[in-house]
Amino acid sequence: MKQTRLLMGMPITIEIVDPSTTNAIFDVVYDYFNYVDETFSTYKDTSEISRINRHEISLAEVSEDIQTIFALSEQTKQETGGYFNIQHNGSYDPSGVVKGWAIYNAAQILHLNGFENFYVDAGGDIQMSGCNADGENWRVGIRNPFNPEEIVKVLSVTDRGVATSGTYVRGQHIYNPLAEGQLITDILSLTVVGPDIYEADRFATAAFAMGRGGINFIESLDGFEGYMIDKEKQATFTTGFKKWVINA
Amino acid sequence: MIKNQIQPGFNLGNATKKFYISAFVVITFIAYVIHQRFTKPDSALIPASQLSTSSSQTVYKDGTYTGPQVDAYYGLVEVQVKIQQGKIANVQFLQYPNDRNTSVRINSIAMPYLEQEAIQAQSAQVNIISGATLTSEGFMMSLDAALKTAKNSS
Questions:
Q1: What does DSSP say about strands A138-144 and B128-130: parallel, antiparallel, or unpaired?
Q2: Which of A7, A21, B25, B36 is the most exposed, having the fewest neighbouring CB atoms within 10 Å of its CB?
Q3: Calpha distance A204→A190 (Å, rounded)
């Protein structure tokens, strides 16, 4: 069974191929995403993060999940040499770490309920588990940043996370946190295959902000591979990336 | 006495040996330089800036060129560059330090030579597509604007 709903400002697709799948489990997982949105969305005035940014709640009295996200953000900031930062002009926007964390937790909910063969895809960032309907690894396409209708690479992956950070020729939305206000223009997309979607997503976001050097940062990480597409339509990839590629 | 007679001869032989060794080193070095000059004109590491703009500027001779082993401080690095139609078609590592997680910062600055390829559309069937979120920004901006309008008109 497969469902797509619009939450957190993006389509979230869940496909479960276990025979025991029911509609109820989809509701449970989407309810969780809804809770994350209600808590962490900076677009919602009533969210806890918005209330923190308006100084209505002090950092001493925030919920456990907010504390977790702040701690994870701080850890990521340190591990990426400051290229990951949820603080901008005095307010917090933890969306760069919340998304991967939420997808990871959604997959955990499915595991806890006994499901083994599924994927959770939130806006192009994916956690995979077990097999697809054909009993094989999940097949993941990397979208062409120059033409969203096309894919430029096909991967065969499971029990891992695949995240793509980037921009499309139409728009720019990732800024370099170490150079205030500077847009990333050289690199269009950076896809990371990591041990899980939380890890893949946070390092994809940080590495993308590094510009051309980002792929070397991914290269330096154990257990991660990356595929970077630049404005000359050239892809640069890490030394172990090919093991995930299906030569179609 | 015998010792004394042999000693000077031995000393002279040592000096001669030193001369031959020095000469050998110098000649080998010159031969190496000549060899490098005439057989591997493009064997030096190519700056990252040229990798990204391979379409313009320098025209290279077609072929496959192996760079020298370079001590990159954290280990030896050796790359191979393939030139097709005067442009860099591929850059590959022949040798590269293994301890990947011990030198994150150093590697991220000093290792700009990874394999490259031109992107190409694929026709194979896939289950899922990974890409930067297409709808997120537009959707959020639109929602934000709508909410602002909603606020102002109330």
A1: parallel
A2: B25
A3: 6
Give the pLDDT of residue B153. 46
Q: Which of A6, A140, A197, A216 to mutate to test the interface with B (most CBs of B within 10 A)?
A: A216
A234:B134 CB<8 A: no
Angle between helices A95-112 and A23-40 (to 10 degrees): 150
Query: Can you read off the two tokens belonging to residue B144?
Result: 């934000």
Shortest Cα distance, chain A CAs vs residue B135, angstroms: 6
Report the C-alpha gap between A219 and A208 in whole angstroms. Answer: 13
Interface confidence, given as ipTM, is 0.89
| pLDDT of the residue at A21 | 94
Q: Give B-chain residues touching A124 at CB under 8 angstroms.
A: 129-134
Q: Is A212 in Cβ contact with B115 (below 8 Å)?
A: no
Q: Whole-angstrom Cα distance, residue A169 to residue A146?
A: 6
Eight-state DSSP code of residue A60: G
Tens digit of each residue's pLDDT (9 = 90 or more) over A181-238: 555 568 889 999 999 999 999 999 889 888 888 999 999 999 999 999 998 899 999 9
What is the residue-wise DSSP string for A71-93? HHHHHHHHHTTT----EETTEE-
Judge whether residue B54 has pLDDT over 70.
Answer: no
CB within 8 A of A75, min separation 6: which ones?
Answer: none
Q: Residue A70: enclosing H or E segment and its boundaries?
A: helix A64-79
List CB contacts (< 8 A) between A123 and chain B. Answer: 133-136
User: Which of the residues A2, A142, A215, A236 would you substitute to probe the B interface, choosing the one with the greatest number of B C-beta atoms within 10 Å?
Assistant: A236
Residues 21-50 of chain A with CB under 8 A from chain B are: 43
Q: CB–CB of B117 and A235 under 8 A?
A: yes
Helices and strands, counts by H and E, chain B: 4, 6
- Could you list the beta-strand ranges (E) of chain A: 2-7, 10-16, 87-88, 91-92, 118-122, 125-129, 138-144, 147-157, 161-166, 187-194, 225-230, 234-237
Q: Do A139 and B111 touch (CB under 8 A)?
A: no
Euclidean distance between CA atoms B79 and B93, whole angstroms: 4
Using DSSP bridges, classify how beta strands A91-92 and A2-7 pair: parallel, antiparallel or unpaired.
unpaired
What pTM value is reported for the model? 0.67
| B139 at interface of A, judged by CB pairs closer than 8 A | yes
Beta pairing partners, A120:
A14, A127
